[in-house]
Amino acid sequence: MASVNIAGREVELDEDGFMVNPDDWTEDCAKYFASGEGINELNDDHWKVIHYLRDYYKQFQIAPMIRKLCKETGCSLKYIYELFPSGPAKGSCKLAGLPKPTGCV
Amino acid sequence: MSYFILQILPYVTGAVFTIGILYRLGRWARARIVHNITLSPFPKTNTEVATVFGTEVIFFRSLFKSDFALWIGAWFMHIALFSIIGGHVMGIYFLGKQFVYIGMSEGLSEFMSNLLGTTFGIIMFIALLYLLYRRFAIQKVREVTVTSDYLHLILLISIVAVGNIMRLIPDWGIHYEPVKEYVTYLVTLQPVPAEAEVLHTPLFAVHLLLVQILLMVFPFSKLMHVLGMFAERWIINRKYTEPAPGLPNIDIPAARAAGLGLPSEGGVE
Amino acid sequence: MPTYKDMVQPVRATDADMKKIHIDPVPDDQKCEKAIEYLDLMRKKFRSFVLAMESCVKCGACAENCHTYLGTKDPRNIPANRAELVRKIYKRYFTLEGRWLGKLVGAEDISLDVLEEWYSYFYQCSECRRCAMACPFGIDTCEVTMAVRQILHWLGIVPKLHAGVGAAMEKVGNHTGLPKPGIVDTLEFLSEEIMDEFGVEVNFPVDKPDSDILYVPSSADYLLNPYTLMGAGMYFTYIGANWTIPSTVSEAGNFGLLFDQMFTQRHNVTRLLDAAQNLGIKKIVWGECGHGWRAAKMYIPSLADRPVPWPITHIHDEVAYHVRTNQLKLDPNKVGHPTTLHDPCNYSRACDLQENLRTVIKACVADFREMYPNKERTFCCGGGSAILFDDPEMYQRRIQLSAKKAELVRATGVGANGDGYLCAPCSICKAQLYPMVEEHELGVEVKGLIDLVGKALVWK
Questions:
Q1: Where are the transmembrane segments (chain B) (predicted)?
Q2: Topology of A2-95 in CATH?
Q3: Which of A59, C104, C109, C430 has its CA 20 to 30 A from that of B142?
């Protein structure tokens, strides 16, 4: 377990670099993770996906079905891979401060 | 030396072999078959189970399908081995006249006994050399081999080589009769007389010594695979009866007639 | 990073992660001693394990039958050699020849390095049992992998992925950590999707009392495999079933089988039996999950701590039965893609499901092409036993482990025009193959089998 300083706040990360406590998330965290994922700049679509994930997680304590994510944000799966090169589960969840998905995913 | 090998060691060998095997089987029996790990496709009847056992034990079915090149060496080696063991018992007990019982003349029976023994001896020798060659030549096999694996093969090859020399060079060999006498002494716990031919046939003593080493090593080595095969197949080839298919309270024609799933306004193509 | 002396290793669970699955990791200075103690327990309990330790002749027949060895060419990934990593310790401590002759028979003292070696290599084995099928004696190397993973678990050495799943199973009853509201929301969303795409009204009853059928889907279906859930819902609606999905154990898989067959696996079984009892179930029907179906079909009888009055079958047993009795109207032309079938190892070598899969797929697909070798001779997708690790080193290994499967898929030709379907009716296979068909550029899309049933059903 490691902790990093993001915009003046200590944030705890697990071995895979996901946030340990999703409530600590701020937009600065998304920007911090973006650089590690090879995303130069977060555009509106990035934020749309990130905010949708956070809202869904707040309500259901789980990431949404990928098909639902695509439908509700209007982004095709292919486009999500363009936005987040490591994919919806590992990439966008990390930026949105969600825990790493477990199980057969 | 010959006296030790022929008169004392056999009893030690017999004890080590028997107690060793019982000890090993006891260890296996103490552990249990905890979960059902039958390999599918499942045998559905006991006849099918027997067929699986039979084809595995007699024809090495799995090996035939999975590694044909190895099967050639392994199958011929084992068939020759069991024929030779059977041949030793029959030949020595019946003095080579065992084929008389299936209608041959005495002379022909002895000729057949010698011919079969020599043939299987040569087959086994070649097969063992091939198996040894594999251990050196094929990378994946070399990678799974440790020293004792080579030693087992070399021991077997030595036994067969000595046996074959005794067959092919009659002056160095021995006939059935003196061996039968010797075995009778052993079994009836009588001392072997000093003038007995077996004590004066050096290769016989060498052959017997090597065999006894093999038998003493047997319970403490991978040679236990002979019995392990049955124990393992007993676990993974069992009869399995499938539960009956069919779901409770299902009437598909009625469900279709009621149009289940179709929106009430209809209109699905 | 997850390598140790040139061996790849999955990211490890922390002490805190282990605590959540009720294990206090053994301190390093006691690990060796404890490992021997646990090894002694395993050998006294499992005959399959003792026999694997004591009757291998190391003929090498397993080598070419192991996709892990074929993909990595690492000699320690030959099943006989992988087992030898334990056998050398077993010989040293539990056999006369090992104690007396040591190195000559390949015996070796235990050390922390050996434990690290176990962790690396027994988490590259996918427990697919192709070596058990190939072995002339029937030695089941999967049993060795299971025993060693159990020992490692007790020592506190488990991949983070598996430990996380273990904790989620205990918390909410499924691997992905889905709480009931998430389950209900996803299923409602899928009802809408079915209406949009197929024009059919399908409801997914959750925890409905007095249901006849308990359908246990894989929790990965809620995140990744929408058509698998949709297909099952459409099938049950089509036949007019009184069915329900349990929210307390919405999980066809059971990672306990893969790293802890004592507490973790049994705990999930207990949850299932409780759910069946509470909901007044008459029959339990299993969803698409390979290891989970093995855990259910073959292990529940020996793991349940009370009588199990409910028959348990797989959804494809039931669909196949309805196909054979001509009760379903299926239009194979609706699935207009060349399709091949990947036999999940656990279905075809542990559960005898291979013929039913074919009955179903041939009824649903017009252009079906067999992949060879198939049925019980199938090769693993490379992800078996959930070695779905995604850190860079292990991900590279996954690509190697799926190389054999990729070669076989390519040989069927279904992906030649880039519009093939690769039917892989198992959640681990799906999770492994989604990225792997891209890595190997196979030109196929991965589908479940009940997905295709849903697409092929004719409603009127």
A1: 6-25, 68-95, 115-133, 153-170, 199-220
A2: Arc Repressor Mutant, subunit A (1.10.10)
A3: C109
